[in-house]
Amino acid sequence: MSSTPKKRLLTGDTPTGKLHLGHYVGSVENRLALQDEYDCYFIIANKHAFTTRAERPDEIRQSVIDIATDYLACGIDPSKSNMFIQSEVPAIDELTFFFSMLIPFNRVMRNPTLAQEIKDKDLGDKYPFGFPLYAVGQTADILAFRPEIVPVGEDQLPHLELTREVSRKFNQVYCGVNPHAKDNENVQQGGLFPVIEPKLGRIKRLVGLGAPSDTGQLLKMSKSLNNAIFLSDDADTVQKKIMTMYTDPKRLRVTDPGETDPEKNPLWAFHEAFNPDKAWVAEHQEMYRGGKIGDVAIKKKLIEILNSILEPIRQRRKQYENRPDDVIAALKQGTANANVIAEETLALAKKAMRQDYFPRELRLK
């Protein structure tokens, strides 16, 4: 009796540095929870890193290895999940070109995530042409694998909506799918690409350690904003970062009894995200609000909690840092597997577009 094939999952990261706690609660936790249930593909999108760091290829290369090591340290199992390098899967580039013909340029530039990145990274009008193109490329990163689920952080939802639009447009233009078809009916009606569904992490947007912006809003955790705790940070570094993190000088603002506004105090946003003892959190929020306990005691508890979460990851990371060939081997096998799926998708896309002239075979040496 043949078993039912697993549904496919695709997600990943742009290698701009090591993974941090924002990545962990935003997507990595979901990957760990789902890798037994789904056929998982985790892309390390190194080509997208060139949109803002084209002059630093050595950093990008190192970051690819760092992220792969972080994946393994977190518990991603290369015998179950495929982590792969974007630039070694050429079908993605070909699909990017075809997809770029289906999306108006002004639609790409209305992507709020692009606008926010331009602002956060202070790019002004000096970003390369490849910067908006990466939004199209991200649709190809995803659809090359025709996944049914994409675990992401909240900030990636605009990219996924663009991907959903590309699926609909391709299916309608080249596969004859009715424009009025429901999203979950596209494949049933002969469409090649599923209209994918995002899966958000339990924390949609983890704030960083720094003070609010000029508008009063706390910024999300980010390496570029220097407000992150990395999964590879040692215990002393975590302690120093937490002890110097921003806290609301007006203490905790409460909208309703027991309901906090973590945008005003990252200390409590972190406790709500990582402290498993919800009774402790509620009790100490009340004490904090009444001035019966201060920042230092709450920070010390948070340090204890975060280090207990990170210590097993640190230990596994050390093991892989001592066995770098194992990291490369996992990347190579995952990339080989990714090419099989992506090449199949590209062949099917070319057939639908009537551009299937000659068959080809691609393999890694």
What does this structure look like?
- By secondary structure, this protein is mostly helical.
- It has two domains: 8-201 and 324-352, HUPs (Rossmann fold), CATH 3.40.50.620; 235-320, Tyrosyl-Transfer RNA Synthetase (Orthogonal Bundle), CATH 1.10.240.
- 50% of the residues lie in helices and 8% in strands.
- The chain contains 13 helices and seven strands.
- It has helices at 21-34, 46-53, 57-74, 91-100, 105-109, 112-120, 130-143, 157-175, 235-243, 266-274, 278-289, 295-321, 324-352; strands at 8-13, 39-44, 81-85, 149-152, 197-200, 254-256, 259-260.
- Strands 1-2-3 form a three-stranded parallel beta sheet. Strands 4-5 form a two-stranded parallel ribbon. A two-stranded antiparallel ribbon has the order 6-7.
- Helix 8 links the parallel strand 4 (149-152) and strand 5 (197-200).
- Helix 2 runs antiparallel to helix 7 and helix 9 packs antiparallel against helix 12.
